[in-house]
Structure formats: structure tokens, C-alpha cells
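FW: tagging you since you asked about this chain on Friday. Here's the raw sequence from the shared folder, copied in full. Didn't touch anything.
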Amino acid sequence: MKVGFIGLGVQGKYLAINLARAGHDLMVYDVRDEPLRELADEGAKIARTNREVGEHAEVIEVCVVDDRQVESVMLDAEGVLAGARPGSIAVIHSTVHPATITRLAERCKTQGIELVDAPVSGSEPGAKNRTMCYMVGAGPEAFERCYPLFSTSGKDIFHVGGPGAGIRAKLAHQVMICINMLSAFEGMRLGLEAGVPAAELEKVVRAGGAQSRVADHWQAFNPGRRSLPIFYKDLQLALAFAHELGIAMPGAALTQQMLEQVLRLDRA
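HL: got it, structure written out here
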């Protein structure tokens, strides 16, 4: 399949590498030269603009940081939609506001292009090890076309509804991850300050009702400084969306305020 991939960050680079290694006719673009050289070594074609990726591909995957970057990649004069053909699919992997997906889907529709929102979970290790989880909002036909591409990086590929459903699922997922991190932080802190050996406390957590992926190996959990703005941004999006829905999420709000402590950046 002719595939395009835009955004070769710590996660996107490995998603793109997996596509290249699976034998797809891949064209990539990023504003940085280093990941472009790495993808060239994997056999990918290198684009000079986002528009060129749109001209090349049947399916264009976008994995950039935030709403502003997604809209720029898609809508600028040299953006994807300036080159994409009717019948193609644009996939947004970025975690953005649901309203951004709605606006882009409407714009794509006017050009005969289908928008799929497919945010992912797993970060760099998941992309490297091909264990990503995909939350896909798409029509049935678009989902079937994209499935072989997503399966190059993971087996957990969930069709959670029509366009826009993927990002809603991702925001719910991020809220639970972050509040879980706060829970693990406070519980482990209490146990350690009370003199319980860390290794023994982790064994108790793994076997008990507090078990979670976050808590299982809490002492080794240290996502680093680059994770702070990502988690903060995702919680900000979730809180804004919850406000629009009229839902109170005090746990998410508190977690956002405490992220630096929860992620233990003072010890990173």
C-alpha cells in the first residue's frame, strides 16, 4: 500500500519504521533531518513537504504533538489536503480535542477524503516492540483499510465507533492512567515512609486489589521530563472536554496540579 507518515518523534519514528519493514511503499516527512535519514535507511521515500506526502499516499498517518500542529500539517498551503486525492484516508494518531477531529473530518469530506482518528497507547517502548494499543474512530470500510497498517505496530486494535470515537476513548484512557499514577504515588509514599521495604510493598500491590500496570513496578517507573508536558496536555484536553459535557472530574484536576511530584521529576 502507498502510505504516508508525518511526525517522526519518539513514538512516530518507530511506527513508521514498522510500516517500512512490513514492505509498504512509504513516504515520510518531519521537520528534523535525523529521523528522516533513519527512515531513508529503512527504505522510505523522503518528502520535502506535507503536501508531497498527501500526493503520494492512499493512507496518510499523522503523529504530531498537539492540535495546532495537526491543523497546520493538514490545512496549510503546503499541507496534506493540498495534495491528497479523493478516496484517500487521513489518520490522526495525535491526542487532540474532539472538536479538532470534527472540524478536520468536515473539511476532509468536502474533498472526498475520509478522516480516521486513531490515537495510540504504548509510547516509545510499545512502538519499538510492536505492542501498541490503537483506539480507532472510523467507518467500517476505512477501518478495514487501515487495519493492516496498524497491525504492523500492535495487535490490540479496537474499533470503538465512528469518526471521533477514538479520541474520546483516548482521553478517558489518559484520565485513568494519570489518576492511577497519583494513587500509586501516594500509596507507595505512605508505605515507604512507614518503613515497608519497596520490593515487598510492590509484591503486595501486585497480588492485591491495588494491582495495576502503573503500580506493579512503581520504583522503576520514571517516564522522564519529556512526559510531563504530554500528560499535562492530555489532562487539559480531557478537563476541557468534560467541562463541555457538564462532567466534574476533580481527581483529574488534582492529578494535573501534582504531575511534577507524581512523575518524580525532582529525582529523574
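FW: The longest helix spans residues 165-193.
HL: agreed, and The chain has two domains: 2-163, 169-267.
FW: great, closing this out.
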